[in-house]
Give the backbone structure.
Amino acid sequence: MSSSTNSDTKNDFSKGSVIKNILNLALPMTLAQLINVLYNIVDRIYIGRIPRDATLALTGLGLCLPIISMVIAFANLFGMGGAPLCSIERGRGNEQEAEAIMGNSFVMMVLSGLILTILGLLLKRPMLYLFGASDETISYADSYITIYLLGSVFVMTGLGMNSFINSQGFGKIGMLTVLLGAAANIILDPLFIFTFRLGVQGAAWATIISQGISAAWIIRFLTGDKAILKLRKKAFRLSLRRLLAIVGLGLSGFTMAITNSLVQIMYNASLARFGGDLYVGIMTVINSVREVVSLPISGLTNSAQPVMGFNYGAGEYKRVKQAIVFMSVVSVAYTTLMWSLVHGFPEYFIRIFNREGDMVEAGIPAMQIYYFGFFMMSLQFAGQSVFVALGKSKNAVFFSIFRKVIIVIPMIILLPKLLGLGVNGIFMAEPVSNFVGGLACFGTMMVTVWPELSGKNDGSSRSGGV
C-alpha cells in the first residue's frame, strides 16, 4: 500500500513501537484534556467559594451542563467524525482527501455553532426549568448560559478542530492549544468573578474569552507551514458524500455527548424532585469529579484512535491488535485504582468544590454509590474507541445509546420508586449501566473485530516492535 513521503517521514504510526506511538500521543493529549476540563472545573471551584449563596450558584451552573453537553456534541460530530477519517486517508497516502475532510468539518462546526447560539438563546429559560431549575436557582443558571451561548462558535472550533491537530500526531501542539486557553481562564476567572464582582456571569465571560484564544491558535497552526494537513479555503466546498462519511463516524461522539446531556437532564430533574436543590448541587460536584478522574482513560483511548486508524488503513492489522490489548489493560488498571481512591476518600473530592456541611454530609454516600464498580466504565471507553478508530460507526453509535438511553434513563426513573430507595436509587443507575453496558460493548468488540483482524494478513512487513 502506497504512502506519501510526508507520511513515511513524519508521524507514520505504522513504524516503531505501537505502545510508544500511543504514549507519545497519550501523554500530551491527556494533559491537554486535563487542562481543557479546567475551563469548567475552575469555574465551579471559584463559584463554590462565592461568599453568599455558593451552593445555589453552583447548582445553577450544574443546571447548564446539559446545554453545554449539547454544544460539545456538535463539536464531537464533526471533530471526532472527521479526524479518524483523516488518519485513515493519511495512512492510505491520500492527503488531498484528508484535507478536504478537515475543511468540510470546519465549515460545519462554524455553521452549527451559529445555529446553536440562536436556538439556545431563544429556548434557554424553558429548557432550564425542564432540567430541574427552581425559582432560587434559575437566575444563576440563566446568567451563565446566556453568555456561554454567545461563544458557541469558539467552543465548537476550539474543541472540534484540535482533534485534527492530534490526528496528525502533533500531541504537544494540541496540548499547547488548550494550555493557552486554560491559563487565560485561570487568570480571568477570579478577575471577573471577584474583582469585577460579576459572579457566575464573570465565570462565563472568562470561559468564552479563553475558548476564543484557543480557537485562534488552532486556526493559525492549521493554516501554517508546520501542519502536515492544512486548513485550505478550497477544502471548504461542501461535499454531501464527504459530510455523510464524517457524520456517520462522528455520530458515536455526538451520541455520547447528547445522551450525556439527556442523562444529566434526567438526573437533575429526578434529584430536584426527590432531594431538592441540594442534591442537584451534589450531582454537579459528582460530574465535576468524574470529568477529572476519567480524563486519563479518555486521553489514552482517544490517543489510540489515530494509531489504530492509521495502521488499519495501512493494512497493519497485527499492530491494531497490539494497540487494543495495551489500551484495554491500562484502562482497566487505572479505573480500578481511581475507584479505590474515590470510594475511600470521597470527602476530599467534594471539598475541592464546596465546603458547606450539608453538601459534604449528603455527598459522601451519594458519591460512593455512584462510583461503585467504576472500573467497568473503562470497557465501554475501550470498545467504543476501537469501533470509532476502525470506522465502524454503527457499532459505536449503538453502544452509546445502549448504555445511556436504554439502561441509565430507565434506571433513574424506576430505582427511586423501588423499595423506597429515593435519591440513592437515582445514583445507583450509573454503576448498573457501567457493568451491563461496559461488558456488552467490549464483549461485542472482541467477538466481532478481533476475529476480523486475526483473519487478515498484514499489508506489509515493515511494522516495528511492541
User: Anything to note?
Assistant: The chain has 19 helices and no strands. The radius of gyration is 22 Å. The CA atoms of residues 83 and 277 lie 40 Å apart. The chain has one domain: 17-454.
